[in-house]
Amino acid sequence: MKILHAYATRLALPAKKYGGTERVIWSLAQAQMRAGHTVKFLARNAGELANSTLKYDRNKPVQEQITDWPDIVHFHWPFDEELAVPYLCTEHGNAGIARDYNINTVFVSQKHAQNHNATCFVYNGLEWSEYGSPNLNMNNSHFHFLGKARALTKNLPGAINIAKNTGNKLRVLGGSRFNFGRNSYFSFDKHVRFHGMVGGENKNHLIKNSRGLIFPVRWEEPFGLAITESLFLGCPVFASPYGSLPELVKSEKVGFLSASYGELEDAVRRYESFDRKACHELAREEFNADVMCRKYSQLYERVASGQALNAQRPYSTKDVTEILPLKE
């Protein structure tokens, strides 16, 4: 099958540091090529693009840009127009306003689909060969936070307080100590070290030598690559129970979920009771690129045969990005 992945960000493909959606697209494409498919990309003019990339121009009709090459087009943005070839769309984020989606929209977790009145979802998978081996020892010295530090929904202040109240060091992957732009913040806490938008071997080293991921998000997390990356590298997850998290942290061996800071702190204090090997095996077996590839192949076949992926057009009647509560 000839597959065209269309995405509209300006980030590099494959992702260098920040770029969760790009990392998923790249992982899916690699698995599809291993399975014998031919893959191309349609993308904006970013700093670095993969080979076989068509340049996306928002001023031209999409049909003109995809040419007559693909058997199917996989959009990674909400697309809802007529095309001469079958297509589906993966929605990677949450609706910020009341809106509806194409009936062949795929979401990235069951809860994500439910939040948009849909049923079709495929879990994100990653190319674990790029992450090295996990550290299954318990002689680690810090916890970590992984996410866009300035995003209120990711709740960096909550993670900092959990680490502080439990007497632990925290490494922040995804921001600097001072941010004076949108959603400005600053931290003088000596137990916290900021590593910026770190990627590659440095990022993997920091994660696998962590005691665990502290991730008290305050929104309906669509999926959460921070969770599966941390699990793969042997880290238990201490997080809020919102969005996809109960689907990913579904065993008491691999983490603890609560909407209470106090309960999360108690769980962090007993981090040694969690099973780092079970964390690694869960991510390796269930959230890998090949599993994701097989799921999407089934959906491609359904779309190509004229079947709808959802019983009705998915829709949202509210802002799914709203801030959710955590209690002390």
UniProtKB/TrEMBL annotation:
Pfam family, one: Glycos_transf_1
Coiled coil: none
A GO molecular function held by the record: glycosyltransferase activity
Keyword ATP-binding appears in the UniProt entry: no
Keywords of the record: Transferase
Domain (Glycosyl transferase family): residue spans on this chain: 189-273
GO biological process: carbohydrate derivative metabolic process
PANTHER family: BLL5217 PROTEIN (PTHR12526:SF595), GLYCOSYLTRANSFERASE (PTHR12526)
Annotated protein name in UniProt: Glycosyltransferase
